[in-house]
Design goal:
Blueprint: H1 4-9, H2 16-32, H3 45-57, H4 62-70, H5 73-76, H6 81-88, H7 90-103, H8 110-124, H9 128-143, H10 150-170, H11 174-188, H12 190-204, H13 207-224, E1 231-236, H14 239-248, E2 260-266, H15 269-282, E3 284-285, E4 291-292, E5 305-310, E6 316-323, H16 324-332, H17 352-356, H18 388-399, H19 404-414, E7 419-423, E8 429-433, H20 438-445, H21 447-451, E9 453-458, E10 461-463, E11 475-479, H22 487-492, H23 496-511
Parallel strand pairs: 2-6
Antiparallel strand pairs: 1-2, 3-5, 4-5, 5-6, 7-8, 9-10, 9-11
Helix pairs in contact: 2-4, 3-4, 3-9, 4-7, 6-7, 7-8, 7-9, 8-9, 8-18, 8-19, 9-11, 10-11, 11-12, 12-14, 20-23
């Protein structure tokens, strides 16, 4: 079983206070869970210790790790919230209670996972660390899923695919997303899982051998070209991700170009492009298969260069090129911006995405956020650490009444659907679901701009208000004092936010 010493060993330069609080939490959890067993027969303490170790490995701070150790105490033991407050303070109690509330949801059928999703976001809108702890908790539960009943296996695995995987993806937490996907896949789609296994069996058997040989060849070429400070690794595409791609390609494995991939990690952006040039010089790139996510990041903040090449040995490989910072962010997403920091580190101002994207991609926050001028201690809760879309969900659904089905439909449309980036004339970026219109854009900026909208220009050309926006469009909204929403706007709106604002304006007009 993981020990407190092992957990502390994963911290970056921990203080004596950091060590003390983790040891204290470990001892409380150990006493509280004494005699409790997992379905596997292992001591229950093995679960919370594994969660804490993973949080430490991700770079989370001592308070988050402490909450990870205590996250099941209120729900499953005789430890009270008052005891946690007395021993660890309000901040850690808040985190523990947040995770407890998510775990205590006991709905069944469709409403069960819909309401779980709602509670997940409302709790997370107050502190992003609640979600991070819950994701790691779910990951460890998935790793031991074989020990529970078949009925529970299916329910938990399906909930994982429908709720936790999309959330992890939206937060850019690529490593946890992939692990959750591949752990849930065989339980939810056993026949499809076996088909994917059979489809790739002839290739994967020799994958490690092929990839290691090509990796060594690439290392030599990069070094010969003068690159010195770089790292290389390889991977085989995840099973669940491959399953979806095979479905789109009619199960033709020859049309999957990213089954095998090499990764090159270099110190800075300039050397990313230099490495790309070297790779294209030694290996023939496939036309139309180069994607520059450094210049134009994915909506969840992911940055890297992807290029697909054919090697002299006639192996088709995807090569991913990124900096060390980009790599850590690709692995842990939003969590990478809550990493263990010193007190004099400025954590105030801006969303997590703004810290990871080039200056052009300053995320537009639909409500004004005030920059905190006070010094923020390490691992302290701070609303501006929370992505704006989570805060928006929390605000919308803490107060507004809607059925759980309406809520989950809104989530799928607004937050888990394919996303696009569009720009204000000043260069601020607005993150919208694919298919959104200027109406959605206007309400994303501010409800008053939406309500007073009289026209719209896209790339300096007048367009109808229900026109579909596309990635990279520059949108300018024209307003007029007497303008007001019409019933037709509801047909042109894509996001639930815009539709709610329009309905509210129409109701006010009808009452006037």
């Amino acid at each position: 079983m993981v020990t407190a010493t092992e957990i502390i060993g994963h911290l970056n330069n921990p203080t004596e206070a950091d060590k003390k609080i983790i040891e204290k939490a470990y001892q409380m959890a150990e006493r509280a869970h004494e005699g409790h067993k997992r379905y596997s027969g292992d001591p229950y303490m093995s679960h919370v210790a594994s969660v804490a170790l993973r949080l430490a490995d991700m770079g989370m701070g001592p308070r988050t790790i402490t909450a990870g150790l205590l996250h099941d105490t209120i729900e499953d033991t005789e430890v009270t919230d008052e005891q946690i407050r007395e021993e660890f303070g309000d901040e850690i109690l808040f985190l523990v209670e947040g995770v407890t509330k998510l775990s205590s949801v006991r709905y069944y059928g469709t409403d069960r996972h819909n309401e779980s999703l709602r509670k997940l976001f409302v709790a997370t809108s107050q502190d992003i660390r609640v979600l991070i702890i819950k994701l790691v908790d779910r990951l460890h539960n998935m790793q031991t899923l074989q020990y529970v009943s078949e009925e529970k296996q299916l329910r938990i695995a399906r909930e994982t695919l429908e709720i936790y995987v999309p959330v992890a993806h939206r937060l850019g937490m690529g490593r946890i997303r992939k692990e959750l996907e591949d752990l849930a896949f065989p339980y939810v789609y056993p026949e499809e899982y076996e088909r994917v296994q059979e489809t790739i069996r002839r290739v994967v058997g020799k994958a490690d051998e092929v990839l290691e040989k090509e990796r060594k060849s690439l290392q030599k070429e990069l070094a010969d070209a003068g690159l010195r400070d770089f790292q290389t690794s390889y991977r085989v595409k995840g099973m669940y991700s491959l399953y979806h791609k095979l479905k789109r390609k009619e199960w033709n494995l020859d049309l999957i170009y990213d089954l095998l991939a090499l990764r090159v990690v270099v110190p800075n952006v300039e050397e990313c492009y230099r490495a790309l040039g070297i790779i294209h010089k030694i290996w023939r790139p496939l036309p139309g298969r180069m994607k520059d996510y450094i210049a134009f990041p994915k909506p969840n903040g992911y940055q890297s260069i992807h290029t697909t090449v054919t090697t002299p040995a006639e192996n088709i490989l995807e090569v991913q090129i990124r900096t060390q910072t980009m790599h850590h962010e690709a692995e842990y997403g939003v969590a990478s911006h809550l990493i263990y920091k010193s007190k004099d580190t400025d954590l105030a101002g801006g969303s997590w995405f703004s810290k990871m994207a080039p200056s052009l991609f300053r995320p537009f926050i639909w409500r004004e956020q005030k920059r905190q001028e006070t010094e923020i201690s390490k691992d302290t809760p701070h609303r501006e650490k929370i992505p704006a879309w989570i805060s928006q969900i929390g605000e919308m659904y803490t107060h507004e009444k809607s059925s759980s089905q309406e809520f989950v439909d809104d989530m799928r449309t607004d937050f888990f659907h394919d996303r696009i980036f569009v720009f204000t004339p000043n260069g601020d970026v607005v993150d919208l679901p694919r298919g959104a219109s200027p109406i959605d854009f206007a309400y994303a900026i501010h409800s008053e701009i939406g309500d007073k909208m009289s026209g719209a220009k896209v790339n300096q050309k007048l367009v109808s208000l229900d026109s579909e926006l596309h990635n990279g469009d520059i949108v300018e909204i024209e307003t007029r004092k007497g303008a007001k929403p019409t019933q037709k706007w509801l047909d042109g709106a894509k996001t639930s936010l815009a539709k709610r604002r329009i309905r509210s304006a129409l109701e006010r007009a009808a009452e006037a």
